[in-house]
């Protein structure tokens, strides 16, 4: 067989298992030689973060809990100052994508290794992608310096995710896999990763939503999220992510929920032009088409929503179309114009099932 492909295989250590966050951190910190650790968490995550960091004793020299969604530039500056204050030699981020994003913002400025203990399905821990928000504008970029050196996945930390966040954060992960699958020139390894991610998430999310303490379901969903992060890192942001970033940055809408409202409409739009990717998605979800599979899963996990329900105003739809028209979509399998963007946003705004009215 003749094989030819290229992709950036990323370095980093991954430790995965129920209970891992309670015992793996000291060894991992020894491995990095970390002696002055800055702990990052939201105020909400602080108690669990402090509990998990307790075995590190005095090596935890400071804690920063000023994390905010989408990493505003002033939060990034405050986090960098906190790291400088304690002369940190390592950042330990325990939390969701916003906490990981804040750690990455520090690493953009200071040459510090990052250790992440994810508590959602965002997947940022596996990528060299950073994001910062300045007013209405969200800027993202890739830089190997922000790629976490160690990631400790512990499904038990996701027991506390309520059903709604389990569902929307899971769809966020699903979106990474879906976009990776129709990315141009995706190689066989990221393709396998993304396909396995869709399969794992499709199987695990309904059970994880039904019973948050089902360790097998939580493991499957977190495994899917890990694969989703890897697939996203090997490919990049496409039409779906560009729409979500504009909506999140410009109108301060919640990240994972926006993914849930938008994904079925982008899939329905792209499906006719991404036949092979769509067949893989449909097959992994046991559905006739990718759009039906995605919309059906979202329904089953009770995550169906609309941009209107998330607080977007009707007038902001046109503003979003304008902002999105300023972007390029060369990598999208189907040509994107103003009519296409309006169709996708209108469907997501009203929360219609794709193909209906
Ligand atoms: P988040 O980190 O903002 O967390 C959402 C909420 O969930 C917060 O209130 C948090 O305190 C709470 N929470 C977190 N873990 C919990 C748990 N186990 N139990 C109960 N509550 C919990 O949201 P997110 O969806 O994890 O991350 C979104 C952010 O990540 C966005 O800014 C997005 O752009 C970014 N992101 C970046 C990349 C990348 O590669 N750079 C990839 C994916 C997402």
Structure, described:
With 357 residues, the protein is α/β, with parallel strands linked by helices. The chain contains 14 helices and eight strands. Helix 6 runs parallel beside helix 8 (215-234). Residues 42, 44-45, 69-70, 95-99, 101, 119-120, 122-124, 127, 129, 131, 157-158, 160-161, 165, 169, 172, 255-256 line the site of nicotinamide-adenine-dinucleotide (NAD).
List keywords for this structure.
single chain; 357 residues; alpha/beta; two-stranded antiparallel ribbon; 14 helices; globular; binds nicotinamide-adenine-dinucleotide
Gross geometry: globular
Largest β sheet strand count, sense and barrel closure: 6 strands, parallel
Ions, cofactors and other bound molecules: nicotinamide-adenine-dinucleotide
Intertermini distance: 47 Å
The largest beta-sheet arranges its strands as: 1-8-5-4-2-3
Report Rg. 20 Å
- Specify the number of helices: 14
Order of helices and strands: EHHEHEHEHEEEEHHHHHHHHH
Q: Helix content range of the residues, please?
A: 40-55%
Strand content: 5-15%
Mean pLDDT: 96
Tell how many strands the DSSP assignment holds.
8
Brief write-up:
With 357 residues, the protein is α/β, with parallel strands linked by helices. It has helices spanning 20-23, 25-32, 46-53, 73-85, 97-109, 163-181, 188-210, 215-234, 239-251, 255-270, 275-284, 290-300, 314-325, 338-350; strands at 13-16, 37-40, 60-64, 90-95, 114-118, 129-134, 137-142, 150-153.
List the helices and strands and how they pair.
Elements: E1 13-16, H1 20-23, H2 25-32, E2 37-40, H3 46-53, E3 60-64, H4 73-85, E4 90-95, H5 97-109, E5 114-118, E6 129-134, E7 137-142, E8 150-153, H6 163-181, H7 188-210, H8 215-234, H9 239-251, H10 255-270, H11 275-284, H12 290-300, H13 314-325, H14 338-350
Parallel strand pairs: 1-8, 2-3, 2-4, 4-5, 5-8
Antiparallel strand pairs: 6-7
Helix pairs in contact: 4-5, 6-7, 6-8, 6-10, 7-8, 9-10, 9-13, 10-12, 10-14, 11-12, 13-14
The structure holds nicotinamide-adenine-dinucleotide (NAD).
Nicotinamide-adenine-dinucleotide (NAD) binds at residues 42, 44-45, 69-70, 95-99, 101, 119-120, 122-124, 127, 129, 131, 157-158, 160-161, 165, 169, 172, 255-256.
């Amino acid at each position: 067989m003749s094989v030819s492909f290229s992709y950036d295989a990323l370095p980093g250590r991954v430790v995965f298992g129920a209970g891992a966050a309670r015992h793996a951190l000291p060894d991992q910190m020894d491995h990095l030689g970390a002696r002055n650790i800055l702990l990052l968490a939201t105020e909400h995550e602080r108690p669990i973060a402090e509990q998990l960091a307790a075995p590190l004793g005095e090596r935890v020299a400071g804690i920063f809990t000023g994390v905010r969604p989408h990493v505003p530039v002033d939060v990034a500056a405050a986090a960098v100052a906190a790291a400088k204050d304690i002369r940190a030699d390592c950042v330990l981020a325990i939390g969701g994508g916003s906490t990981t994003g804040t750690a990455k913002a520090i690493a953009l400025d200071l040459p510090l290794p990052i250790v992440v203990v994810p508590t959602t399905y965002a997947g940022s821990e596996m990528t060299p992608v950073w994001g910062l928000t300045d007013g209405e504008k969200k800027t993202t970029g890739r830089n190997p310096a922000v790629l976490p050196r160690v990631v400790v996945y512990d499904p038990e930390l996701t027991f506390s995710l309520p059903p709604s966040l389990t569902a929307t954060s899971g769809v966020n992960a699903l979106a990474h896999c879906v976009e990776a699958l129709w990315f141009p020139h995706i190689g066989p390894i990221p393709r396998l990763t993304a396909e396995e991610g869709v399969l794992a998430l499709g199987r695990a999310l309904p059970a994880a939503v039904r019973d948050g303490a089902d360790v097998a379901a939580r493991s499957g969903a977190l495994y899917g999220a890990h694969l989703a992060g890897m697939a996203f890192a090997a490919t990049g942001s496409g039409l779906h992510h560009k729409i979500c970033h504009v909506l999140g940055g410009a109108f301060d809408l919640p990240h994972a929920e926006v993914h849930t409202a938008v994904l079925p409409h982008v899939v329905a739009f792209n499906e006719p032009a991404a036949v092979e990717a769509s067949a893989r998605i449909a097959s992994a979800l046991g559905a006739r088409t990718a759009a039906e599979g995605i919309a059906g899963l979202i329904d089953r996990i009770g995550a169906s929503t609309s941009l209107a329900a998330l607080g977007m105003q009707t007038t902001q739809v046109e503003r979003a179309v304008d902002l999105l028209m300023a972007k390029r979509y060369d990598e999208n399998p189907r040509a994107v114009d103003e009519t296409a963007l309006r169709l996708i946003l209108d469907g997501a705004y009203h929360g219609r099932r794709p193909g209906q009215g």
